[in-house]
């Protein structure tokens, strides 16, 4: 490396004003991934606490599961509100507001006298606060990178898998040593650890708002953009498949610990199962992202294959009798969670030009959050009425397979011509992500 290039690299990494693709950009990326791992780990580990709440309040599996499912989808459900706050006060203040809400919600949950109040404090309030922590990094990271933007977003997307892998053994140890109320109090303190990570958002590359906004077609309203995306038949097919798939995708995750206890497995062994799904999801996401970059590999069919494997595994779950069988299922579930979550985003992006992608992603994921929230509650209601989880898993497996089979309709519709992305188009996408929905 020449003296000039080394000097330039030093200035990019350590100058007072942060630059894109600098060392500081990677610091921000890793810090955001760490904070998202904390919040996602607490949310996705609800299934471990689920049996304790069910035994404590005796208010049914449906109501108990609903609190966890609302919190689980809160990361996307409240995103329109978060975007407005983000534009008004910036990423740092937005995430700190969310962190305070999360800590307060966990403290209130620890004092909850019944599941109805916990539904409000944990499901709604913590889900609301977690969105303020989880969502802004996805708006900030594209501003920090140009050359390595996709890879940086891939690192950020490992949050759910990494969080489940890290938090599940911690939560297990807390529940063994303390009451669930004390556990939620400690989780509030653990959540506060995200503060130094979030402080990195106060020092990010500046964006030229006027330059980006000039590229937006002012004549086209949001309503027209939404209608134009729904005219894309391939996108509609993918949406129908996603809605069927994600309506039941989270049922096994929320109810697994309780089901394992019902078949005679100790609670400590049941809670350890979540570690395997988290680790698998963490590993598979960057692998699938790399596969989707390879020419000739269609992300839609990666999504379909992963969904079908998940459906078959769920149909076979009632036959599981040994601990290894449950480990194998959670590994498959983690694989499907990471593979479908990554590939379906690439599939939707591939249906549109840059200008329409943000609108399409906003439409699809906003509706998915509402549908996904109802799934675990529906599964709990069926288990209460039928007295067994076996019919619930059969229903889940069938719907997963049906959702995957919908993708077979795609070859009958030719993809629309998609313009190649330019640097200005990429920057426009950031603006529309902030204004979508």
Task: Describe the overall structure.
There is one protein chain. 78% of the residues lie in helices and 0% in strands. The protein is an all-alpha fold. It has two domains: 20-203, Up-down Bundle (Growth Hormone, Chain: A), CATH 1.20.1250.20; 224-417, MFS general substrate transporter like domains (Growth Hormone, Chain: A), CATH 1.20.1250. The radius of gyration is 22 Å and the shape is globular. The relative contact order is 0.14.
Topology:
Layout: H1 3-14, H2 23-44, H3 46-57, H4 61-77, H5 79-89, H6 91-110, H7 115-134, H8 136-144, H9 149-156, H10 159-177, H11 180-192, H12 195-198, H13 209-213, H14 222-230, H15 233-248, H16 251-262, H17 267-293, H18 299-316, H19 323-349, H20 354-386, H21 390-405, H22 423-435
Helix pairs in contact: 2-7, 2-9, 2-10, 3-4, 3-16, 4-7, 4-20, 5-6, 6-7, 6-11, 8-9, 10-17, 14-20, 15-20, 15-21, 16-17, 16-20, 17-19, 18-19, 18-21, 20-21, 20-22
